[in-house]
Amino acid sequence: MSAISASQDSRPTFVSVQHLTSVPDQESRTRKESMPPLRLTRRGKVVLIGIPLVLVAALLLFLAGFLTAPAKAADNTSDLALTPTVSVTVQSGQSLWAIAGTVAPERDTRDVVADIVQLNNLNSGVVVPGQQLFVPAS
Fold it and tell me: Which of 50, 90, 110, 118 could crosslink 131 through cysteines, CB 3.0-4.6 Å?
């Protein structure tokens, strides 16, 4: 087999396939060896080093959150303990602090307010008159 290549005098010359697929000669080897090493720009370094590091850090944070997540509260409903509660209607001028002090004067008021917020799924400590609240019974 052979291939045709055009020369300057526009006459075709024949080149053998062996010549095209042969091992490069010494001159082309030295040319490749004398080329400078590949240099990375700042963007190239970010791509090759920074992005994989960010992905590994995100994976580690995900795994840490997954492995330290709280487990379920109980295996079955018989293991759950019910908190005894009383329903209270908020009066005009009352706050969670005042309700907590009235309901459980023997306990720390901050703890009772936290319990009221948790029992009623409140986003803040603001209550309005007429609102029904569950408060822990003493």
Answer: 90
Q: What is the dihedral of CA 122, 123, 128, 130, to 10 degrees?
A: -30
Contacts of 12 (CB under 8 A, 6+ apart): 4, 5, 6
Exposure letters 84-102 (e unless 16+ CB within 10 A, then b): ebeebebeeebebeebbee
Q: Which residues contact 107 (CB under 8 A, 6 or more apart)?
A: 138
Predicted confidence (pLDDT) per residue in 64-113, tens digit? 988 887 766 667 777 677 778 889 999 999 999 999 999 888 989 999 99
Give the up-direction half-sphere exposure of residue 77: CA atoms within 13 A in the CB hemisphere: 0
Q: Structurally, how many domains does the chain consist of?
A: 1
Residue 52 counted as domain residue = no
Supply the range of the domain harboring residue 124: 84-136
In a domain, 117, yes or no: yes
Residue 130 belongs to some domain of the structure = yes
- Looking up residue 119, the CATH number of its domain turns out to be 3.10.350.10
pLDDT digits 0-9 by tens, 34-66: 777 888 898 998 889 999 999 999 999 999 988
